Amino acid sequence: MKKIMIKMLNKKIYLYVGIAFILLNLASCKTPEMVEKIANANVPEQYNSSQDTINSGKMKWEDYFADPYLKSLIDTALKNNQELNITLQEIEIARNEIRVRKGEYLPFLGIKGSAGLDKVGRYTSKGANDATTDIKPDTEMPEPLPDYMIGAYASWEVDIWGKLHNAKKSAVSRYLATVEGKNFVITNLIAEIANSYYELLALDNQLNLVKQNIDIQNNALKIVKLLKESARSNELAVKRFEAQVLNTQSLQFTIEQRIVETENKINFLLGRYPQPIERDVTIFNNLSLENISAGLPSELLANRPDIKQAELDLAAAKLDIKVAKARFYPSLGISAGIGFQAFNPSYLIKTPQSLLYSIAGDLVAPLINRNAIKATYYNANAKQIQAVYNYERTILNAYVEVANQLSMIKNMSKTYDFKSKQVDALNTSVIISNDLFRSARADYMEVLLTQRDALESEFDLIEAKMELMNAKVNIYKALGGGWN
Q1: Which of 144, 174, 241, 450 has its CA 20 to 30 A from that of 295?
Q2: Using CB atoms within 10 A of its CB, is residue 455 exposed (0-12), middle (13-18) or buried (19+)?
Q3: Mind telling me which residue stretches traverse the membrane in this protein (predicted)?
Q4: How many alpha carbons fall within 13 Å on the CB side of residue 111?
């Protein structure tokens, strides 16, 4: 009879297990299908008619920039800049996320100890059973009943579908993306400091130019006053020359304010409070563009940190889809425990009476109301498509930036040459107009207009030189230089 009952029980177990597997298969067979979008990483073969075999973006920033003062500023910024330090902490956060994901697919093991006291009511099912149990007087169960336990337990989700491993790989890709993000911050930081430094040198030269013009205009004012005393000029001319001097003097303080703001901008990037920026003002006019080579557009994929960051984000997004898809499938969990339990501490070491152990496995799969899993899956797919577009946009933007800066260098070089000739011509015209005015062969308005045009042209020349140096910085940034 007992054997027959055991056989019936085994048949029921097999039946239940079979039904469970059928339900699990039904639950996993209706996984939504998504079409993966493939990123287009193709770029034109060249920027212009020539193909450079050398890429200036691969140079170290210490070799690209020759000014020792600028090098010192960049070196200080790479140590103290707050934005860069914040990015370094983001890298640490991403690294810790890898440890979290790695720990999820390894077995969890812990130890447990407990102590308690249990008194059940006599008129309960458990209490009634205890009351009717025939226990000898010397072995009577204590009441209330203490409970002491010490043991170890373990649990493990078997990663059948690679869900946990893919989650870890995704975390690794995002960690590497934060590293590239840090490199991109370094590239931008170096470029911003260099541009601000060259702007500061340009402002210094403009300030010197204004001071020189104030002296020249003061001398012209004295001459006009003398001419008025000799009845060769009038009060109107004196006032017009005096107004021009005052206008130039006001321009001096405007430039000085811009110098202060630019210095403080550099100090902020260096992570320090306002202080004078050391620099050599005299080198500005001697600055020149060395041979700059753009290399091939395909090199941007390896040189630009933002492109590599977008590529790694795309890889992580693809893995996230696999993780989300695996949630439709059954998951297998295994749990086990072993330890000792007794109502008296002295009995804990008596085996096998106090020994307890357990092992169990569970197979779980979603069957009904899978909307949350579907929504997560759809979101993962949408984010993957976003990552594809972001990757393609980043590549396109990088190419456009390089093309723009190459064009800027070409056109600003020509502009600077023409501006230099314009300045020479206007400086000569200032001398001629002053001579003609002294000999009463030119009107004072001609002198004023000529001086104003000469000052404006020299300002424009300095601005053109600054834009040319900024183009040198920006092409280095666009090529992905500075981080390596």
Answers
A1: 174
A2: buried
A3: none
A4: 3
How crowded is residue 32: how many other Cβ atoms within 10 Å of its Cβ?
13
Q: Determine the Cα angle at 370 with ends 368 and 371, to 5°.
A: 130
10 Å CB burial of residue 386 (0-12, 13-18, 19+) is middle
Encoded amino acid at 373, one letter: I
Helical H runs in 105-162?
125-132
Cα angle 466-468-474, degrees, rounded to a multiple of 5: 100
Cα–Cα distance for residue pair 454/460, rounded to 1 Å: 10
Q: In the predicted model, is pLDDT for residue 9 greater than 50?
A: no
Buried b (16+ CB within 10 A) or exposed e, 182-206: bbbbbbbbbbbbbbbbbbbbbbbbb
According to DSSP, the residues that pair with 111 across neighbouring strands are 152
Q: What is the pTM of this model?
A: 0.83
- Quick one: tokens of 114? 């407990």
- The domain spans of the chain are 1-29, 37-105+159-330+365-478
**Rounded distance, CA 178 to CA 214, Å?**
53
> Class of the 37-105+159-330+365-478 domain?
mainly alpha
For residues 472 and 196, give the distance between their C-alpha atoms in angstroms, rounded to a whole number: 13
Taking the C-alpha atoms of residue 191 and residue 473, their distance in angstroms, rounded to an integer, is 6
**Residue 140 pLDDT > 70:** no
Local structure of 370: helix, strand or coil: coil
Reading phi first (left if > 0) and then psi (alpha if -120 to 50, else beta), residue 117 is in beta
Strand order in the sheet with 355-364: 108-118, 145-158, 331-342, 355-364
**Rounded Cα gap, residues 101 and 109, in angstroms:** 16
- CB within 8 Å of 326: residues ≥ 6 apart: 161, 162, 163, 166
DSSP collapsed to 3 states, 463-474: HHHHHHHHHHHH
Closest to 81 measured CA to CA, from 267, 261, 264, 260: 267
E strand or H helix that includes residue 168: helix 163-229
Report yes or no: 399 and 295 within 8 Å, Cβ to Cβ: no
Q: Which of 466, 465, 459, 424 is nearest to 209 (CA)?
A: 459
Strands (E), 343-422: 355-364
CA–CA dist 61, 74 (Å, integer): 9
Quick one: tokens of 413?
Answer: 């070089």
The per-residue pLDDT for range 393-433, each reduced to its tens digit, is 999 999 999 999 999 988 998 998 998 898 888 888 888 87
